[in-house]
Predict the 3D structure of the following.
Amino acid sequence: MSQTFKFKDEQDLAGFVQERVDPVFITGGQTRGVDLKHDRVDMTGLSGVVDYEPGALTMVAKAGTTLQHIEEVLKAEGQQLAFEPTILNTALGTSGASTIGGVLATNASGPRRIQAGAARDFLLGVRYVDGHGNVIKNGGRVMKNVTGYDIVKLMAGSWGTLGLLSEVSFKVLPMPTAQATLVISGINADVAVDVMSASLNTAFDVTGVAYDIAAQCAYVRLEGFEQSVKYRTKSLIDTLTVDREIAVLENDDSAAAWSSIRMLSAISNQRGDLWKISVRPTDGPQIVQKLGLISGIMDWSGGLIWAKMDAGKTARDILGDIEGHAINLSAKTGLKFSNTNPALAHLQGALREKFDPKGIFNPGLMG
């Protein structure tokens, strides 16, 4: 029977790794499921905001701190995580609460990525325990600290395969004072991608473009100061050439719509494995047609597709000859990454051997 190990002290965690021989599965809030085959390291014991400087737009937190707590602390100061991480537990049917370490380890970036950047773009520094049991610090609390090897960016998106994140420092941004969302209904995926791409190609600073496949609705978001949002909303409507009436959601209604998109509410009650499919935006409609999708979310102007699939599908079944990446996020014992590039596979293997020579961190993950 598998065991769960939980540590409140970084040095105790390091000592555990030094002595550990058998593989372990690293968990935070367990929102992505739990590997039942291996022992687990529960990182939620390392929790709490270490330092927060609203004036400097920086925060330092232990990796096991819940995302909800981070966002509540920021909201009290009128600030936010600009990369708007996607919340997957409802879509995956799991309990628990996402942690900031899990968010950054998976580079979980939501709708605002197209305008603000990914989670890794806001990560300033990390403390982590490597496969030797050493406590490593890299980066700092300011954006200028980019000397030497950029391990900070490497850790973001490594899914815990290179080390156990114990503390992270990151940049935050002010929350907008107003927002509005254009809703274009009754259009198919091809038209939606055209509308979303056209919106992004304007000078109106669009911060979100998504399409609900089942509802046949495209959503285009603008944020900022109230007068600016009103002006840009009207100007964008006048610019778009679409044979459909355009509705506008403002402030709270707009925020509610994007919260639903961020939580993948459109597919949360469906059966099947949750797939994250990344392709060129122009290939998005082809994926929808190829897979016969009647529901799902197309984010990032069609470049990111969230969908539920019958069990047994592989990345190659989904992508076919279309260039891109596909990940089965429902896999409990190793995510199914589409890694068909031999050079990339070799580099990935070499990195894992260097950072985790005993091969104990998240076995099979990203393999």
